[in-house]
User: Fold YfhL family 4Fe-4S dicluster ferredoxin from Verticiella sediminum.
Amino acid sequence: MALLITDECINCDVCEPECPNDAISMGAEYYEIAASRCTECVGHHDEPQCKVVCPVECIIVNPEAVETSEQLLAKYERLTAG
Assistant:
């Protein structure tokens, strides 16, 4: 499952540098996570680092991008190939 940053985001800038897949960027009003790049840190860490550092706990599972652990691992392998 890719993650999603809700509108409760305070734009504190701590999540973006923690993402090993460069999936987080500033959107029109607050940070956003690109579902195509988010692996929930599978392959890199035991838990999503953006959620670990978020002071307002505004990062949730994206209900529109539900993926299995196997799919997340395959995405990680595709993103890190080459």
The CA atoms of residues 2 and 35 lie 5 Å apart. The two ends are 24 Å apart (CA to CA). The helical segments are 49-53, 69-80.
